[in-house]
Every structure is written in structure tokens, then in C-alpha cells.
């Protein structure tokens, strides 16, 4: 994928996170987009965020409804 | 002597005295004060320092480079007169006993922000200062230290004049616009700050300086001008470049806090503490309190509001 398209993908994912900051899916998408761009450390950090923020799916679904 | 400490006397003799006093534990040193005619020299006459006259010639970098040329000692520590050493005298003493041809990044604390700057270097490293004002050294092979300086806010009063001459000499260089924007920001002249930001982004939109300027712009748009959409657009740009910067997530939190969207604000403050902890060593400034203290406090305040004060509004966000 072209670098420009990946950058757009990161921005679009960030916009989705703005709209729904408790959605696990969008953080996963962000991690994937960063990985596609070769930004390994940042992708690992987002993975860490996923693990911290969504320790279990129950907590996730509760949070998503806030 | 192994070390030459170089200070340009820009204006305030009291802060220079504090600076010199803070260096008392540094051994084997020679202190050179560059006199450019802006500072009262009487307070230094009883000290163990040498005062050398220099012509300003619209460039502090030129003076600094001349000082390096004249230096007889192998190591150089350059300081601003408003900087004091608060940690690392032992490390300096250790480094200057070696013959490593290296340069060393030191940390500078100003208010609650930590900056990094090459302050200590071996003369044979052959690095040179650039920029006539806010002069800096660049060296991609620099090493990291735990040497800390404190910097107090200070203006020499000649920034405007030097910036003007810099812009005239280099009309297409983005750097004068960057510093002009920052000067306007420090003077709370927001319309001019925004104008300079726009001009700067026209010339440079991708460097670290552009990223920082965009962050400051987003802060002003959100916290001073209530232009939240513009602020969001700029902070998204910053997050795309650096998703691990707690400062950026905190500002998102602040924007949604202002918009009374407390649940979202809380999520972004939480992201600041979680992702900020993963930020690795880089050369950009760090606003220390945005990494734990501030976002934790704000997330708690959001939680309190969600739980007790505004249940109706929050539920229907």
C-alpha cells in the first residue's frame, strides 16, 4: 500500500477513535495501520494500550456504552 | 585546565552570577564571559572568570563559533546566562577527564518542560553553532547524560532586531518564522502567532519544529480562542506523527473537557498516561506533568462528574 494511503488510514482511524474512544476495534485498526507503516514501537505501544484498556471484553462492552 | 565554560553576557548580571555559582562543583574549569556591551561587568570583577569582548554583528552563533576557535581547553560547556546546573557536576568531571571526541546531550528544565540540548562537547568534534539567535548545535552522534540545568525565562530585548536581520539575510528560511511565532506566543500576541504559524507551515510542515508549532497552535485554538474544530484538526495531525506523546492526548482530553464531553475526555486523559509511559527517548521537549499527574487528576475529575454531578448530560452525550 502506498505510504500516503497508510497515512490517510491512520488519520481516519484516529478520527474514529475521537468519535468512539472506547472501541477496541479502532485501536486495533490503528495498531495495524502503524504496523503497515513499519512503525513497530508505536504499534507495540498501541498493543499495550489495548491490553491495559481492554483487560477483558466485558469491561470493553460496558465502557463502549458510556 | 580540561574544560572551558562559555557564557555570553546577554543582559542580566544577577542570573549570570547564579549560573557561575551553580558550577562550583565542576573541577578543572576556566570560565569565559563574552561581553557584547549589554551587561554591567562590575559584579564579575572579583570572580575567577575571564571577560572577553566580542562584537554582536547580528549573530550569537558567530560569537559562539569564534569562542570555540579561540578555546585552548579540550572540552567546552556552553551555557545561557539564565541556566544553572542542578545535577551532574560529577558526570561532567568524569567526562572531561577522558579524551573521547564526543558531544553530550544535557537536559534543561524550563517551567515543567524538559528540553534536550548539546551543551558539552570535545573541541575536536568540530561542531558549529547555527542560527544567529536561539543558537544551537547539531550532532547526530551525540551521547545522552543525566546532566540537568534549570532555565529561567528571560528575554534579552534584542530578539526582535536579530530576528529581523535573520529574515532579511535568509528570506526563504523557515526557522526565523518559527522563532518569531514562538516570540509572539510568549507575548500572548495570538493573531500574529497564528499568522506566523501559517507562513511557517507553508515552508515546512513535516519537521519536528512544525509538529511542535502545530501543537502550540492547537493549544491556542482550543484553550484561548475556543476554535475546537481547528484545534482537533491540528492535534490529529500531531497524533498521526507521534501517537505516543501524552501532551497530544491530554490536549484532546482538554478539548472534550471544554466541550463537556466528559466520558470522551476521560478516555483521552487515560490514553495520555498509558501511551505516554511508552514514549522512548527522543529530542523533542517533554511536558513532564502531562505524563501522569495532570491526566490522572483530570481523568478522576471526569469520573466524578460522570458518576455524580452530571449524570443526565453524560448519559446523553
Describe this structure in words.
The complex is a heterodimer of chains A (66) and B (317). Chain A is mostly helical. Chain A contains 4 helices and no strands. Chain A has helices at 3-19, 24-36, 40-53, 57-64. The longest helix of chain A is centred in the N-terminal third of the chain and has 17 residues, at 3-19. The model of chain A is unreliable at 58-66 (pLDDT under 50). With 317 residues, chain B is of the alpha/beta class. Chain B is 46% helix and 19% strand. Chain B has helices at 13-22, 60-70, 89-95, 159-169, 174-186, 190-203, 208-224, 228-241, 246-258, 262-276, 293-309, 311-315; strands spanning 3-9, 29-35, 50-53, 75-79, 83-87, 103-110, 113-122, 129-130, 136-137, 143-151, 286-287. In chain B, helix 7 (208-224) packs parallel to helix 9 and helix 10 runs antiparallel to helix 11 (293-309). The mean pLDDT of chain B is 93. The chains are: A mainly alpha (66), B alpha/beta (317). The A-B interface holds A 7, 10-11, 14-15, 18, 21-22, 30, 34, 41-42, 44-46, 48-49, 52-53, 66 and B 232, 236-237, 239-240, 243-244, 252, 263-264, 267-268, 270-271, 274-275, 278, 280, 306, 314.
Order of helices and strands of chain B: EHEEHEEHEEEEEHHHHHHHEHH
Low-confidence stretches of chain B: none
**SS strand fraction of chain A:** under 5%
Order of helices and strands of chain A: HHHH
- Give the N-terminus to C-terminus distance of chain A in angstroms: 35 Å
Roughly how much helix do the residues of chain B carry, as a percent range?
40-55%
Tell me, briefly, the overall form of chain A: flat
Low-confidence stretches of chain A: 58-66
